[in-house]
Amino acid sequence: MELQTAPENSVRPQLAVVMPVHNEAATVRSVIEELSATIVAAHAVTLFVFEDGSKDGTGEVLREIAASMPALRVSTSPDRKGYPRAVRDAILSIDPKKFPVLLFLDGDGQYDPRDFKRLLAEFRTGSADIVNAYRTRRTEPLYRSLPSKFLRRLEGLLFNPGVKDVTSAFRLMRTEVAQTVARAIRYSPYNFWLEFTARASSMGYRQVEVPVSYRVREGATKVYGLWKMPKILRAELGALLHTWLDYHGPEVARFATVGGSGALVILGLLWALTDLARIPYLVSAAIAIEASIFWAFVLHERWTFRRIPKSDSLSRRFAAYNLVALAGLAVNLVGLFALTELFRMFYLLSEFLAIVIAFGFNYFASRRFAWTGRPGTTPGREDTTRVPHGIEDD
Predict the structure, then answer these.
(1) What is the spatial distance between Cα 101 and Cα 172, in angstroms, rounded to a whole number?
(2) Contact indicator for 62, 76 with CB cutoff of 8 Å
(3) Which run of H or E residues covers position 76?
(4) What's 358's DSSP letter?
(5) What kind of fold does domain 2-223 have according to CATH?
(6) Which of 53, 115, 270, 344 is most exposed by smallest CB count within 10 Å?
(7) What pLDDT, in 10s, does the model give residues 308-320?
């Protein structure tokens, strides 16, 4: 990798602006000039541009600009890495001691640098580790917007990241946070930020978003065509699911184990109350079900979700879990009826599938309504990163 440097600024900056480019020779100069006028000059920061194996002379244009722009650092790569790896390497190359805060944006001109003020204002509040730009009035072809909406909704269900625009590449972040998350990226072959947002959420980092304007891409960056979208959707769906299993697989296994023990509690109590205590079997079943809910709640509280920070009262969590468990029972019965009567399945197969569906409902509903925290996090932790000198005022 070749690193081009220009003379140091008279004011030592503490904000790194990071931008990857590939085959953007026609427009990279105008993009950098806009960044220089709106962010670099106004806030005394350093702009790092990472060129990823361009074949159109982008590297030569960047070296020419760097010769007369002290705040610009250019890194070129002889070979194409691809977007996810290029972004990861770019983030990891920043020295967090010199640059504790990092602003990332793509180099195709779709983001307006003037919106940096909005991200900075939110970052100053100390409410988040990552301030995400939420693109408003975004226009895309239907073949792109539908898969994108599906992946965003799925990520919201699986990870509850607290932001809607999970693929946005315009973010103001604490550098150490960005690097910790970037090091963990493993699966996404096309969209780095989908997995990044999911992992940041699973690691317990606080993410918020602010609305920004959206512009049509200026450069030669190619938007994937219709023919490639099924492959991309399959790959990114797999990346999301693999990422989810990385963080939640053991938890799901514990949840299933507790569910199995709850079934044994129901069967044991049903037999004891009906045969030994001579209580009518329907009454015995109701008592056994409620007892199994209490049993499962205790195990979930002490074992399954032991690493989840408890922000609500114990009684509130128990009430929420009780409602979830009863709703799961209803899901099971409705699934059994629908699969058997409407789809004409054998009733035992129907019940097996209904149990699987109800299990998924119970797990996700329990995580959403009863145990809502994230593993290993402490709600309301103090932010130790201050806005760096030189970007305090607009």
Answers:
(1) 7
(2) yes
(3) strand 72-77
(4) H
(5) Spore Coat Polysaccharide Biosynthesis Protein SpsA; Chain A (3.90.550)
(6) 344
(7) 887 789 999 999 9
